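User: Before I run my own analysis I want an independent prediction to cross-check against. Here's the chain; please return only the structure tokens and, at the end, one sentence I can use as a sanity check.
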Amino acid sequence: MTEQFIFAVTEASQVAEVRRQVVSLASKLGFNQTDVGKAAIVATEAATNLAKHAVQGEVVIRLLGDQDRSGIEILALDKGPGMVNVAQSLRDGYSTAGSPGTGMGAMSRLARSFDLHSDPTKGTAVLAEVWSGRASESKAPDPMEVGVVCRAKPNEVVCGDGWAAASSPGRVLLLVVDGLGHGLGAATAAQEAIRIFRSNPQHGPARIVEAAHAALRSTRGAVLGVAEIDLGQKLVRYAGVGNISGVIVSDSSSRHLVSTNGTVGQDVRKVQEFSYPFPTGGVLVLHSDGLISHWNLSNYPGLLRKAPGLIAGILYRDYQRGSDDVTVVAAKATSVRPED
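Assistant: Structure tokens:
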């Protein structure tokens, strides 16, 4: 699933709307009454924390799963001030706002997975997943964890950006696409690129880009990047056209992926595919030009070890232009993350 819903939360009256939306989504996904209640509590606590503490707060709701399982991801983004002592903040009974202090602890207990990153000067990001009961143990973890934030330009009804992911044993494909301009025409181009991507999961990045170029001739065109992560060979194969950015980040280095000039559906002289080492513990970040390119994860101690949803969320929070569609995707190999 790629659906997302983003809510600004800057004061207490907005908490109820977040809760209502999450309850509605959980019910539509077939959650039982107990799991709907869990999702409601997690969403309420996340939004309440923002209303109490955030300078600029947003809750990003993403639908998870496939035909066999369903879940809801709740990402709360707070632009500050952050926590001085994260471990203390997770204990029931601790509060800096005069509340009972059960919010963060309740979220961590009720969610199937829970992670957070906080910096006293930059803010806090909290990520929680709640799954339907029948899905909780039904499927082995995917080989890669993928986190994403995709948001339309302010005052636009639809987003001209898009993204998609496909996985098979030992292999993950990722797409980020930015339709030219904004609004419906851009969204139409982006959705056509996503359709082609989903129709060609057996092919590599270059073949997918070539197929998209042919299919998008009837649209206004797009820029896009397709990455294939080969976990067995520890490689990233990448083909990109236009100003989609790709970076492989590890503790010791950052490597930018090469895209060629052009517009898919209009002018592509030659599609080129490049290969890059994908180090153990590395993170692949792909994003549209709605995100400023001069970001540096080394400014966020410990973030590389966190869930990709937190990485994508913090990059979106701190580096979005605010005047464009924006998509940021982060991916890393599934593993047990060490505690801070």
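Sanity check: The chain has two domains: 4-135, 144-333.
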